[in-house]
Amino acid sequence: MRLAIFLAILPVPALAHVGHLGPLAGHDHWVAGAGLGIAIGIGLWQAAKERKRSKSEPKAESEESEEEQPA
Question: Range of 42's domain?
């Protein structure tokens, strides 16, 4: 009994699947899915943007270091 009381008051994270977010908003599960899709799309877009930026930065750094070496 003491163990049950102890476990009941332990702070633990809520574990629920994303389908529970839709009814909270008063909509169906597809709204939560659409929101997740948008979030994933934004994340992929930012990752591609960062990858493109990181590919262009080393070229700029190497040009600066070449200018410093002859002097």
Answer: 1-55
